[in-house]
């Protein structure tokens, strides 16, 4: 049991709908929570909310490819980093020195809302990787990081090239799905650039109607 105080007990008496609004504002604060590697890499990186957005779609894709429930994967994705709103994101170099009670952070965020039991259950499922969908979410979490490293490479960062051996070790030791491995390999191959979705898609440049 956590030795930290239960902050929920300190809330004034409020109505259930007011508690829901507090929750809604808190979840919205994920837009303003930077992830740790932004400072370490000295790059403009996705915040917690932006990260969760792409992870959700990646997890759905992997779930479909693996033949498991994409809807469950999506919901786990939305919850997987909610601990970072009250706590923080830590890099592997910070984790040996700082202990964060992520479970308590999630519990206090969801406590007193209609999502109280569901939120904490999904967070634990993600942390334990206790379902195929949770494994898809974790792989999606890793893939989003590799995608973002590829994106900053196009802006001139040499981080991905410098750490390629470590990145490939993550591919070997950490990915939990065959579909995740396939997507990882496709990213690393470099055959698809971050802007190809724009350049290779339909446009008025291609059909000759631009400016008309």
How would you portray this structure in words?
- This protein is mainly alpha-helical.
- Helices cover 61% and strands 0% of the residues.
- The protein has 13 helices and no strands.
- The protein has helices at residues 16-28, 36-41, 48-66, 70-79, 83-86, 102-110, 116-128, 132-153, 159-162, 164-173, 178-189, 196-199, 204-207.
- Helix 3 packs across helix 8 and helix 6 (102-110) packs antiparallel against helix 7.
- 26% of the residues are buried.
- The model has no long low-confidence stretch (mean pLDDT 92).
Give a concise summary.
The protein is mainly alpha-helical. It is built from 13 helices and no strands. It has one domain: Hypothetical protein af1432 (Orthogonal Bundle).
The helix-strand sequence is: HHHHHHHHHHHHH
| Main pleated sheet | none
- Quote the average pLDDT: 92
Instruction: Label the CATH architecture.
Output: Orthogonal Bundle
Shape: globular
Helix content: 55-70%
Which terms would index this structure?
mainly alpha, 212 residues, 13 helices, Hypothetical protein af1432, single chain
Please render the helix and strand layout as text.
Layout: H1 16-28, H2 36-41, H3 48-66, H4 70-79, H5 83-86, H6 102-110, H7 116-128, H8 132-153, H9 159-162, H10 164-173, H11 178-189, H12 196-199, H13 204-207
């Amino acid at each position: 049991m956590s030795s930290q105080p239960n902050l929920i007990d300190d809330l004034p008496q409020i109505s259930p709908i007011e508690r829901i609004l507090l929750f809604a504002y808190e979840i919205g604060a994920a837009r303003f929570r930077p992830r740790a590697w932004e400072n370490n890499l000295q790059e403009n990186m996705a915040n917690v909310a932006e990260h969760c957005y792409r992870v959700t779609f990646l997890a759905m894709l992997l779930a479909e490819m693996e033949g498991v429930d994409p809807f469950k994967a999506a919901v786990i994705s939305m919850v997987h980093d909610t601990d970072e709103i009250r706590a923080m994101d830590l890099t592997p170099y910070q984790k040996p020195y700082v202990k964060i009670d992520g479970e308590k952070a999630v519990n206090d965020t969801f406590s007193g809302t209609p999502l109280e039991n569901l939120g904490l259950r999904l967070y634990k499922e993600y942390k334990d990787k206790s379902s195929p969908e949770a494994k898809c979410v974790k792989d999606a979490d890793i893939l989003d990081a590799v995608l973002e490293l590829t994106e900053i490479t196009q802006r001139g960062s040499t981080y991905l090239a410098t750490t390629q051996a470590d990145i490939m070790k993550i591919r070997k030791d950490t990915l939990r799905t065959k579909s995740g491995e396939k997507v990882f390999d496709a990213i690393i191959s470099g055959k698809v650039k971050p802007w190809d979705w724009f350049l290779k898609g339909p446009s008025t440049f291609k059909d000759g109607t631009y400016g008309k």
